[in-house]
Amino acid sequence: MHADRSAVLxxxxxxxxxxxxxxxxxxxxxxxxxxxIRAVDVDHLEVQRGIITGLIGPNGAGxxxxxxxxxxxxxxxxxxxxxxxxxxxxxSPHALARQGMVRTFQLTKSLTKLSVxxxxxxxxxxxxxxxxxxxxxxxxxxxxxxxxxQRADELLVRFKxxxxxxxxxxxxxxxxxxxxxxxxxxxxxxxxxxxxxPMAGVNPALTQSLLEHVKDLAGQGISVVFVEHxxxxxxxxxxxxxxMAEGAVIAEGPHDSITANSDVIDAYLGTHHDAxxxxxxxxxxKEADG
Length: 290
What we know:
This protein has helices at about 5, 65-70, 95-100, 115-120, 130-135, 140-160, 175-185, 205-220, 230-235, 255-260, 260-270, 280-290, and strands at about 25-35, 35-50, 50-55, 80-85, 85, 100-105, 190-195, 225, 240-245, 250-255. It is of the alpha/beta class. A hairpin with a 2-residue loop joins strand 9 and strand 10 (about 250-255).
């Protein structure tokens, strides 16, 4: 947790649905069912602007479905969403990206038959050359194309992928693809970036690099929400943690308050556990086992 960022939430109660001083993303009465099973039933959640928010929960808690609902990859049966104060109900992922919300995936979505630099350039928004008639008039967008390529190169250097610039994205390792996806997301200069298990499948050599990049995002004023199973990662980079179980938000707060929360312990370990328990160890074990 970063001291300056955590200060923003000083005095905010550690309880589900608590109002935040400056929410960038808000979900109200969001519900989604599949075959009569309620996968998501979130009464109210506010995501604070400018911090790193971790989203955790046991397997089957509804995290991925909720993530998909927030990012437009699925639509709720009921409920409302807002981003930067504006309704985003029914908005598609590409429309949300134009507004400043982008996401990455647990399984990376790089275009393997395109070069790394071309993958990067695809991430830029508001490209004039994408218009049919403007594409035939290079003087109208040539300078913009150069600026996009310059930004792409700067990000590749920052993410230490510049040596792979002309290589096909398909030749990258799993960890390098994660870095590429994060770097490409930054091409759109987002206000909020949603990371779906950013450390999944990444070897230890690249894990620390990814962690530092996530921290750096918040340092630049970009809001971050991430789904993660590794509680060490959650403790390391989260300013605020949201816990889901059976489709609902059951707890919110700083990491220390979450690991001491009896509802969270019950959700991970069942209601018939014997106290006291080593929450850190048991949460990690339950996630790895599931």
